[in-house]
Write a structure and sequence with these properties.
alpha+beta; 9-stranded mixed sheet; 6-stranded mixed sheet; 6 helices; 25 strands; globular; binds fe (ii) ion; iron; FN3_dom; acid phosphatase activity; metal-binding; Calcineurin-like_PHP
């Protein structure tokens, strides 16, 4: 049985139907069955990869938060014919005064590939809650985009984050991005949980597939910040072709404001945005005791002021709680090191990718174990985060559709479908989360949950009975 605590008649009927269809041991395994075919990468001449017209036109334009609090933006783009200009011109809506910011450019070689000129420019001292236009390029080939800065950081500021992971560049990836863009509950900033282009699956890790990916996602990420997390496909390590510097393409192409949170590397950092404190961790950098990431997180968590940013969100690539037969327990070593802190500091939610499916956990922890006591089963814990696996962006490796059975008690809902999610903060106590599968209409929610904040409103918000 899958008994429900919530008592709406509809929910009870739905539960009865699902329970009859899918035996489980606590949570729900969705009965939705998706066609198992995988869609390949979109061909190079696809319209979504089109190079913008004009000599040396800026392409692959993308933005991310540029400081700790949301008053700066990092604008990045690529030029291929010549270096071009590093300047971003920008102006507030309703203002004719144009400001100018100077950036830097870089390029890299990867095996037999040489990148274009990759520009990064931090635009500082922006006003909160303001729409800005920005222009990159010079001469006849300038391109103009816009973004809206977040409201000033504060405890009751409503704000909606989108969530995508493991996107890749297949026809399914395109469907996921379209569904995200057309979701009527608009995400204002996207939290990206790692594995971007999957270029490393090509012979010699053909980095032209990083360029196509940059052009593919521009239609969203040029207009709203994506907060980046590094996944295993960003490692780009291949000793056999002489490429032994981890994260080389990723770290040249995607700059993040890691120094603003006193991090010493771009793979772990934090930002505040509206009423959220977002901590990004790296599953593929050292994280054990005494590592740089360990000491950074050790100092970072006590800095989170829940009176200023009530919502504490963690992003990582490899999930800690995952009941699919893919990447099973790969997150375990990091869990052992950091989970006691997540419980102590009452993290609200952890988003991860890596497993190409969807799963939402109960609030559980597994911190009692030591090497002799045998206490190694996850237990319900109201101070623990909800763990959400959202690695279902639709990449070329296809779906993870083989689950461990029976469904573990810690798993509240799981389904092997591609999709995206939104996390919509209403105030300091409530946030509405919903997951959307690609087969449905844009407004349809396939899973949802009201989150009660762990600091301000730490009552039971489980959607299923324990
Ligand atoms: Fe991955």
């Amino acid at each position: 049985m899958c008994p429900y605590k919530k008592t709406s008649v509809l929910a009870v009927i739905a539960a009865a139907v699902l329970a009859a269809a899918v035996p489980c041991n606590g949570g729900i395994t969705s009965s939705f069955v998706r066609s198992p075919e995988k869609s390949g990468d979109m061909p190079l001449d696809s319209d979504v990869f089109k190079v913008p017209p004009g000599y040396n036109a800026p392409q692959q334009v993308h933005i991310t938060q540029g400081d700790l609090v949301g008053k700066a933006v990092i604008v990045s783009w690529v030029t291929v014919d010549e270096p071009g200009s590093n300047i971003v011109l920008y102006w507030a809506e309703n203002s004719s005064y144009k400001y100018k910011a100077n950036g830097i450019k870089t390029k890299y070689k990867f095996c037999n590939y040489t990148s274009g000129y990759i520009h990064h420019c931090t635009v500082n001292k922006l006003e909160y809650d303001t729409k800005y236009y920005y222009e990159v390029g010079v001469g006849n080939t300038t391109r103009t985009f816009w973004f809206t800065t977040p409201p000033e950081v504060g405890p009751d500021v409503p704000y909606t984050f989108g969530l995508i992971g493991d996107l890749g560049q297949t026809f399914d990836s395109n469907t996921t991005l379209t569904h995200y863009e057309k979701n009527p509950n608009k995400g204002q900033t996207l939290l990206y949980v790692g594995d971007l282009s999957y270029a490393d699956r090509y012979p010699l890790q053909d980095n032209t597939r990083w360029d196509t990916w940059g052009r593919f996602v521009e239609r969203s990420v040029a207009y709203q910040p994506w907060i980046w997390t590094a996944g295993n496909h960003e490692l780009s390590y291949d000793r056999t072709i002489g490429e032994t510097t981890p994260f080389k393409p990723y770290s040249h192409r995607f700059h993040v404001p890691y120094k603003a949170s006193n991090s010493t590397a771009p793979f772990w950092y934090s930002v505040k945005r509206a009423s959220a404190y977002i901590i990004v961790l790296s599953s593929y950098s050292a994280y054990s005791k005494y590592s740089p990431q360990y000491w950074w997180l050790y100092e970072e968590l006590p800095k989170v002021n829940r009176s200023e940013t009530p919502w504490l969100i963690v992003l990582m690539h490899s999930p800690w709680y995952n009941s699919y037969n893919y990447h099973y327990m790969e997150g375990e070593t990091m869990r052992v090191v950091y989970e006691p802190w997540f419980v102590e500091y009452k993290v609200d939610v952890v988003f991860a990718g890596h497993v190409h499916a969807y799963e939402r956990s109960e609030r559980v922890s597994n911190v009692a174990y030591n090497i002799v006591n045998g206490l190694c089963s996850p237990v319900s814990n109201p101070s623990a985060p909800v763990y959400i696996t959202i690695g279902d962006g639709g990449n070329v490796e296809g779906l993870a559709n083989n689950m461990t059975e029976p469904q573990p008690k810690y798993s509240a809902f799981r389904e092997a479908s591609f999709g995206h999610a939104t996390f919509s903060i209403k105030n300091r106590t409530h946030a509405y989360y919903s997951w959307h599968r690609n087969q449905d209409g844009y407004a349809v929610e396939a899973d949802s949950m009201w989150f009660f904040n762990r600091f301000w409103h730490p009552i039971d918000d489980s959607t299923t009975a324990a």
